[in-house]
Structure formats: structure tokens, C-alpha cells
Design goal:
single chain, Ferritin, two-stranded antiparallel sheet, DNA starvation/stationary phase protection protein, oxidoreductase activity, acting on metal ions, Ferritin-like_SF
């Protein structure tokens, strides 16, 4: 679903390739949906975890969910800056997110970390794949994507460490 435009071109920041404005807006919308859904999946896993390391994983998930919410806000604010109204409502997230849902049941701590790591990696890879094309249209938006990917990849590393994998 396309984001609605809130301003005319005179009020908008110029893009390196103004013909790509709609594509940049769509990419920001997709990224917003994935980040919101990642935070929802993180909360679901937060409630589902059990095992010897459950407390540490539980607390770590709170930190991750907070970081994803902050990143979603940065993405949404960039969309607004470019003249789009982002849609972070549950219906839009459910329709557009590409994050794989999790099974709703109790899960062992190591399974939670593994499942979350796969989803974080998938979101980071999707965003990384768009860096070049977004950079060709708007370097400022590319910088937002770089920030998001950098944060997600750091989280991947921290999740790998919890599984005992080498950095």
C-alpha cells in the first residue's frame, strides 16, 4: 500500500533522483513494517522463553524490542520528511511485513535466540540489498538504511554470541 503524500514538491527536500521519490517512500514503508513486526515477534518470544538462560534472554529481548521501536521511528520520520505518511497500524504491518511469524508456544532459550537471529538476519539482508538503489535516489535515506543495517548486524552478532558461536 502506497504512503500518502502530505506536501507538494516545493516543500520537500530535493532528492538526487526526484523520479525515485515514490520508490524511496515504498522502501521506507516496507522497512517500517518489518521493524514493527520484528518488535512484535520479539515480544512474543519474550513471553515464550524458558530454560536456564531464560531470564537473560528475556531481558535482552526487551532491549532489542526497544531498539527496533526506535529504528522504526527514525524510518517513519524520514518518510514524513520526504512527504509521505507512513502506516504502522497493525493491519498494514500484517499485510506488508516480510518477517516470518513464530510458533505461539513455549520455546527453549536457545531456540528463541536462534529463531530471532534468523529473522534479524533476514531483515538486515533485505535492507542491505536496497542500499545501492536507495543511495542512487537519496543519500540521506541511504544513511538511514545504513544505520538500521548496522544496528541489526550488531544484534546478529550479540545473538550469535549467546549461542556460543564465534564472532
Amino acid at each position: 500500500m502506497a504512503m500518502e503524500s502530505v506536501a507538494n514538491s516545493v516543500q520537500l527536500p530535493p532528492l538526487d533522483n526526484p523520479n525515485e521519490r515514490a520508490a524511496v517512500g515504498e522502501e521506507l514503508q516496507l522497512m517500517l513494517q518489518d521493524l514493527i513486526d520484528l518488535s512484535l515477534v520479539g515480544k512474543q518470544l519474550h513471553w515464550s522463553v524458558f530454560g536456564a538462560s531464560a531470564r537473560g534472554v528475556h531481558l535482552f529481548l526487551d532491549e532489542l524490542v526497544e531498539e527496533w521501536s526506535e529504528l522504526a521511528d527514525v524510518v517513519a520520520e524520514r518518510a514524513v520528511t520526504l512527504g509521505f505518511v507512513p502506516d504502522g497500524q497493525s493491519s498494514a504491518v500484517a499485510a506488508g511485513s516480510r518477517v516470518e511469524p513464530v510458533v505461539v508456544r513455549s520455546l527453549a532459550d536457545h531456540v528463541v535466540v536462534w529463531e530471532l537471529g534468523r529473522r534479524v538476519a533476514a531483515v538486515a539482508e533485505r535492507i542491505r540489498a536496497r542500499l545501492g538503489s536507495i543511495g542512487g535516489a537519496d543519500l540521506v535515506t541511504q544513511d538511514v538504511l545504513i544505520r538500521v543495517v548496522g544496528t541489526l548486524e550488531k544484534q546478529q552478532w550479540l545473538l550469535r554470541v549467546q549461542l556460543g558461536e564465534k564472532a
